[in-house]
Structures are given as structure tokens and as C-alpha cells.
From TrEMBL:
The chain crosses the membrane at residues 7-25, 37-61, 73-93, 99-117, 129-145, 157-180, 201-218. GO terms for biological process: CAAX-box protein maturation; proteolysis. It comes from Flavobacterium nitrogenifigens. PANTHER family: PROTEASE (PTHR35797:SF1), PROTEASE-RELATED (PTHR35797). Keywords: Hydrolase, Membrane, Protease, Transmembrane, Transmembrane helix. This is CAAX protease self-immunity. GO terms for molecular function: endopeptidase activity. Residues 99-192 form the CAAX prenyl protease 2/Lysostaphin resistance protein A-like domain. Signal peptide: none annotated. It comes from the Bacteria. InterPro entries: MmRce1-like, Rce1/LyrA-like_dom.
Amino acid sequence: MKNKINFGSIIVFYVVAVICRYAAVKTNLLSGIENPYLVILLRGAGPALGAFAAIKIFSLHNPMSLKGIYKNAIVPFAVYWILPAVLIAGVYYLTIGKFPILLMFTVLAYGLLEEIGWRGFLQEQLKSLPKFTSILIITVLWFAWHLNLEITPNNMIFLGIIFFGTWGIGKVYSSTGSLLAVAGVHSLNNFFRDGLHSTELTLIAILLLIWVGFIILYNKKFKTVANPA
């Protein structure tokens, strides 16, 4: 029997997420904050706050987890946070001569705040729907949350990226159950604030190959341990 969707909780989640996003990017509410890293985090906090509000108000059982299928959070933290932070910081050092470690982990934390909402909450709430329907709903809501609704070529490209991101990150979440893992994948594009060039695209491809391979191998090991012959 499929779980019944709690539409009230989804409405609360999304209203809170959009209000927080609007306050952060469309008003001067954050203009007095001098710490740029804190501003980055506050711009992405809405989905997490919305998820926690909905779970609290509706007393939902929501299986959010930082570690997911892994024995502890150290494994996904090392593979999906430390590894990209070190590699990408190395690329930054070669191009601009410094290690922006604080920026790396701020971007990862930003991704985590979003993923608590989009995957940890919304994907879980919609899991009884057909896969494509769930992806489509999350895509539309996630795209609209960014509050860039003009019909322009760039926004249509961004919508396409959101669609494939929803599918791909959703697959990672379904395979790992780890918010740390999906936060790392989510953050790949956000690391490169000055655009993607051949070096950045190569690094992204390498990280994706490492992560996909790790997920496949770990899931095989996990299933073998869970179901010994």
C-alpha cells in the first residue's frame, strides 16, 4: 500500500522556502551582514527551514540521514565533501594562487541546506508517485524557488539543468540515503562561480565517475552484507 501524500506539509514546506528565498535575494534584509559566507548560507536556508517546519507542524516521520546506508557519516563526508574540496581547492590554487577552503565548505553546506528540503523532505513525500511525475513536480518547484521566472534562453537552459539535476541527484539519494552525498553532488556547479571551462568540466567529470563507481561498489557490498549467501 502506497503512502498517502501529505499535501498540507508540502504547502507549508514550499511557502516557508519561497518566503525565505524572497527575503534573501529580493530584499535588503541581508545587506547589513558583512560575512559573505554567512550570506551564501542564508540564501539557501529556506528549503531546510521549510522541511523542518513541515515535519514539526504535521508530526511527520521523515527518515533524513547524513550517513544514509553508510556505517557512519565519516564515509560520505570524506568521499563527497573532503575529496571535492581538496581537488577543487587545488584547481583554484593553480589558477588564482590560493586555497579557498572556507568557500568550498560554505558551498557544500549551502548544498546541504537545499538538499534537506528537495531530497530529504520533498522527494520522500512524493515517493509514492510515479518516478517521472515526482521528478517533474520537484523540477518545477525547485526552478520556481530560484525566483528567476523570466522566459529567456538562459532560464530555459537552467530549467533543463534543474530537470536533469533532479533526476541525477534523486538517483544518488535513492542509492545512498545520505544527505551528505547529495549535498556534494548538488554543489559541483556552485563551486565554479566564474563559469565552467575545460579544466572545471574535466574535474566535474572525474568526480562524477569516482562517485558513481563508489556508489555501485558500495551498494554491491552493502547488499552482500545485508543478504549473505
